[in-house]
Write a structure and sequence with these properties.
single chain, alpha/beta, Beta-Lactamase, Rossmann fold, Helicase, Ruva Protein, domain 3, 5-stranded parallel β-sheet, 42% helix
Amino acid sequence: MDRSRIQTTELDRLLNSVPQPIYVLDDELTVIFVNRACVDWLGPAAEGILGSRAKYHSEPEGPGPRSAAAGLCPPPEVLDGSEVSATVPRPGDRGRVSYRQARFLPVGARPDDTFAVIAVLETEDLSEPATDTKQPRESSATELHERIERFRREAAGRYRADRLLGKCPAIRRARRQVELAAASRASVLLVGPSGSGRRHTAGAIHYRGGPDSAGTLVPLACSVLDGDLIRSTVTALVSGSVLADESAHGTLLLNDVDELSDEVQAELAAELVDRPSTMRLIATAKQPLVALARKGRYREDLAAALSTITVELPPLIRRREDIPLLSQLFLEEANARGTRQISGFTPEALDVLHGHGWPGNIAELSQVVAQAHGQTAGLRIGVDDLPEQIHIAADAAARPPREEETIVLDEFLGRVERELIRRALARSKGNKAKAARLLGMTRPRLYRRMQQLGLLEE
C-alpha cells in the first residue's frame, strides 16, 4: 500500500479518536474532513457536508449541507495565516440553536500561503455565543457576524426582517410593531422615507408563516400605475374574481399609497372600506395617512382603513449606531452571492460610513457595500475601497460652503453716496456749491446729506 495512503488512514483514525469535534477546510473553505465527534455533534446536519463550501454569511438557507457549512465558516482572516477564534452554531430541533467556541488554525508553508484550516471545537455547548472581553465588541467583525447570525436564526420562525436589525430605540419599536402586524390579519401601514426598507418589511409581514402558507403577494405601484388599472385590480382582488382561492389568504400591497389622486382615493374607499374582504392590506407611504387626513390632504375613511397598525421605519441618519451591523449584513449578503469572502470593514471605513448623510437610506448603504465588496483586494473593506460618491460627499462635508454675505441695501447705497460726495468735494477743492452742481443737487441738500452721512466731521 502507498505510504502516503497509510499515513492518511492513520491520521483519520487518530482524529476520529479525539473527543473534541474537529473539521478541516481547504484554501477555498470547502469542508474536506469531519471527525466522528463533529459528525455526532452536528447530527442530521452533517449529512452531505463534505465537499460543501463554507461561505462567510448568515443567510438562512433552510436545512441542508450548505446551511450547515455556512455555520462552520471561519472568519476569512484565517486565510492570511492568522489563528482566530469564533463561535460555531448548530441548528437544533424546533429552531433551537446551540453554539461551541472554535479555534481555527491555518496550515501552510508560509503565513501568507494557507492551504488548509483546522477547526477545533470545545466539547461543551453554549446557549449563546461567548463574549470576548479582550476587545471592544462593536469594533469586532466577528461579533457583528455573530449578532447578525443570532438575530436571523431567532427571527426566522416569526418573520424575515433583516433590515430591522439594530439596537436603536426607533428600530426596536419598529420590530415590535412588525411582530404585532405579522401575527394578525389587520391592515398595516408602513411609513418611512424612500430606501428605508418598506417593501422588504411588507414581505416579512406577508411571509411570516413561510412561502407555502402565505398566499399570493400582489404589489401595486400607486405612484406609477394609472387610476383605472389600480381600481380594476383592487376590485378584482377584493371580489375574489382572480387568483381563485389564493386571494382569500393573499396580501394586497399598495406601494406609495399617499400619492393617490383624490379621485382614485374615493374609488378605493368604496372598495376597501365598505366591502369586507379576507385579503390582507399592506400599504406604504412616506407620511402617516391619518396626519395627512387631519390636514385635509387625504380621505379620512381610507386613511383609517389602511392604518389599523402603523409601523414607522426611521431614516438611516436616525439609526447611525446600527450602521456597523447593517454594513456587515450587506457585506455577508454579497459573500453569499459571490465567491470572494470578505471578513468585514476597517475602523476607518466604518467611520466614513458613519459620517455619510445617507439620503438613500439603507438601500443606498446596501449599494455602497456591494460596490466596495466587488473592488476590494483584501479581506477587509478599507476607506480606499469605498465608492467615489462616498469620498466626494466626505470632502464636501469637510469643506462646508462659506456663508453668503448679506447685502443691506441702505448701508451699501450709503457707502456709494459717501464716495461720490468725497470725489465731488475733491474736484471742487472743498467748494460745496460747486460740488453740489457736479452731483446735480442743491447746496442745502448736499449739506443735509453730508450731515446725515457724517461727512461734516471729516
